[in-house]
Design goal:
Elements (H helix, E strand, L loop, with lengths): L5 E6 L3 E6 L3 E7 L2 E4 L4 E5 L1 H4 L9 E4 L2 E2 L2 E2 L2 H16 L9 E6 L5 H13 L4 E6 H8 L10 E6 L4 E7 L2 E8 L3 H16 L1 E2 L2 H11 L10 E8 L5 E7 H24 L3 H10 L1 E4 L8 H9 L3 E3 L6 H11 L1 H6 L6
Parallel strand pairs: 1-9, 9-10, 11-17, 17-18
Antiparallel strand pairs: 1-2, 2-3, 4-5, 4-6, 7-8, 11-12, 12-13, 14-15, 15-16
Helix pairs in contact: 2-3, 4-10, 5-6, 5-7, 7-9
């Protein structure tokens, strides 16, 4: 019987992916906890909690404990980690304390870092190693992070988009901005409200994004039917929306990401910029699924971009690779603060 003594956790604002060596991805669930209000008791975590959003009575709150990739509520994050760790370890959780590698945003402070480590230890980890998200995404995307040449990765998650130039096993220059999946959903629902006077929920906006989001307008547009509440009558109404409208809704957010990339280029040594121009930019994270995103970056930055294989799992894959070579990385990467 294999005892799971190592677990990799991609602790995302929107989704948490858990990786176990020899088993692969064992969990991919929303980073949400449902609480009962008066007694502050955890009722459900993950998928079950997400299903309660927008449908719960007032004494149950569906809570997202990570705000923009950082712990906003310690108690709830601990409950969340405890749930994911015990689910990954199984019935042996009481006997075996696993080594855990957890992803954190590049811009995390020492205090926030300590909070993640403490929450993981209290949730049942033997040791918790913290690694910055762009490094994990780069490793998971198959980028040789220890080489001399520069590579750029843009990891568009739920709460943050991280842009980083990686060389010689470390981050040379980076930017972390709070424009990502959640802001895309918000932009879509604002656009629909303004253009069609239709209110739609968080889930509906996310469904539109998954179904027909695009970073640029194109001749062959895709359509999607959406139901919401008409703001003038208060009654349900259906509308048909297309991918070019979504491109228009997302444009300001994507421009913000492109200007962050521009800033990172400005802070990067010219030799490494030349490497990136030659190789292109790697896109990872759930946001990389937006259609035509490489075209958008090519147009706005003049650099080729391409989507990594299984972009949503790059960070979790990176934790897996580190776990498989923990002794090597302990000497190098994990000592880099």
């Amino acid at each position: 019987m294999i005892f799971t003594t190592k677990i990799g956790i991609d602790l995302g604002t929107a989704n948490t992916v858990v990786f176990v060596p020899k088993k692969g991805f064992v969990i991919n669930e929303p980073t949400i906890v449902a609480l009962s209000v008066p007694e502050n008791k955890v009722l459900a975590v993950g998928r079950e909690a997400k299903e309660m959003i927008g449908k719960t009575p007032s004494d149950i709150i569906a809570y997202k404990p990570l705000k923009d990739g950082v712990i906003a509520d310690y108690y709830i994050t601990k409950a969340l980690l405890k749930y994911f760790i015990s689910k990954a370890v199984g019935s042996l959780g009481a006997i075996i304390k696993p080594d855990v590698v957890i992803s954190v945003p590049a811009g995390i402070t020492q205090t926030e870092k300590r909070a993640v480590i403490n929450a993981a230890m209290e949730a049942g980890a033997k040791e918790a190693h913290i690694v910055k998200e762009p490094i994990l995404a780069a490793i998971g995307a198959g980028i040789p992070i220890n080489s001399h040449s520069g590579n750029m990765i843009i990891n568009i998650g739920g709460g943050t988009s991280e842009v980083a130039v990686v060389s010689l096993g470390g981050i040379v220059s980076w930017a972390s901005l709070r424009v990502a999946g959640n802001k895309f959903d918000q932009a879509i629902s604002d656009y629909i409200k303004k253009k069609y006077s239709l209110f739609i929920g968080e889930q509906s906006a996310e469904n539109v994004k998954i179904a027909i989001s695009s970073a640029t307008s194109s001749r062959n547009k895709r359509e999607y039917q959406i139901r919401g509440r008409d703001s003038s009558t208060g009654l349900p109404k259906d509308i048909l929306i297309n991918s070019n409208e979504i491109a228009e809704a997302l444009h300001p957010q994507l421009v913000e990401i492109a200007s962050a990339v521009q800033r990172v280029f400005n802070e990067t040594p010219p030799e490494l910029v030349a490497d990136i121009m030659e190789k292109g930019i790697v896109l990872s994270g759930g946001g990389a699924h937006i259609e035509n995103l490489p075209i958008f970056f090519k147009k706005s930055l003049g650099v080729n971009a391409f989507v990594a294989e299984e972009p949503l799992f790059c960070v979790a894959k990176g934790t897996g690779i580190i776990l498989n070579h923990l002794d090597v990385y302990k000497r190098t990467l994990l000592n880099k603060k």
